[in-house]
């Protein structure tokens, strides 16, 4: 039971990390929404956005636990994920609010904010949630549980963002409309009389806005995207360089995919400082030639005293021993036969066999647990053991033993507690490919319905496939194998890759500019900074997991880091360039 006990210790190891993460994300959200203007600052909106994601996690987990849905260890990663997604939507809504007219009423400003932000965050929520719900079709229970908990929590996150967070933005808008201080709520002037100290000017004024556009003054980072990054990215030379970078990225990714390993090392299920790891290390050092002893159960009553029946059983045992990674067999009936021959006993008929078996078991009690008898002394079932070799071929050995058991005319079943982990080797690739393909098709349908341009919808799907290939390839180069844990992250990568590319693609399509370069620049100026904010908040949401003592949570961080990094690269670099080259058509 040590493996199971240590496995159950893993969720407790990240409780403290979640507290640290929440503190980091709250701080980042507030700081990134902080303005030098004491009226226009969005401190309270940022705080409410984090609270909304916290409520979403509580609601999602509470609902599923209330209806009796099992909570498995992989679901402990959900709060870190949902936190990043919820904050991303908040940044989009704040960005849209800041582009509304300051002179308009709060209902008008909020209506325009929802008009611009609702489709964008609806697309990303739909894709994130559906990608996770599609993960429930897999045969892995741990993956299904994670996808269910994360998917329901994301739905609650969307609900709270368009209700609770919207209400908070309305209240904050009323405060702004009356030119009240963000902290004291007292009315303050836009400018102080001359002669006041610098500190007074910083702390006691606010409410400025762009007199030409009537909008709030844009942030420093938004101006960088508008005036510097956008023109730079749409330059011909830069586009050529981006093309070369993408080809190199794709080449490295494809190479990594060819080196991807499959399966989960069971020693990784325990914490790094667990005593069970020392056991595995010692076992590997001193007994590396030998591996597990598989149990073979004879599921039905047979005539063990009948020579013809035992010949069939011996043939089956020979089939087991002829396998490449099998050493020998330890069977109670063989030892019993040897003992009977040594003592000159005749056990070729039922009564003598059963009578002498009791005497044999008294002298060899080690075999008592291998025989199940009825009240009348009839052997209902029994078992023997097969010693295996070479721990580098777990799936081949397990599959070979099962095939040999199926071929035997006597009903046999092969079992070992580790088979539940080795089974991943046989189905993980097929399950992952099937789930990803179904998810990509569903994402295409959603994009075609919600983005008013078939070409741009295809580019969103292209970004999904490109990010999946990149994450898979670099995952292999970062010593992460394809198992149920990394499979969860690959499913999530679909949603996140849509998040970044969909925001930019939708803004590109919605632009009224005829020039494709100006449309790309406008999309980047509007959503470039919110995308960066969302990416940073998601990375900060999972960065604490990199310090976890559990391989499972460290793997979650690694793959999430790759997903966010490549998602941002596609959203802010590859997709804008490709849209300017291939996204311009009449249907746009």
UniProtKB/TrEMBL annotation:
It is found in: Cell projection, Cilium, Flagellum membrane. GO terms for cellular component: membrane; sperm midpiece. It comes from the Eukaryota. The chain crosses the membrane at residues 13-31, 43-65, 71-97, 118-142, 148-171, 425-451, 457-478, 490-509, 529-547, 559-582. The keyword Glycoprotein applies. Keywords: Cell membrane, Glycoprotein, Membrane, Transmembrane, Transmembrane helix. It is a multi-pass membrane protein. Residues 14-171 form the SSD domain. It holds the Pfam family Patched. PANTHER family: PATCHED DOMAIN-CONTAINING PROTEIN 3 (PTHR10796:SF60), PATCHED-RELATED (PTHR10796). Belongs to the patched family. May play a role in sperm development or sperm function. However, does not appear to have an essential role in spermatogenesis or male fertility. This is Patched domain-containing protein 3. The lineage of its organism: Eukaryota, Metazoa, Chordata, Craniata, Vertebrata.
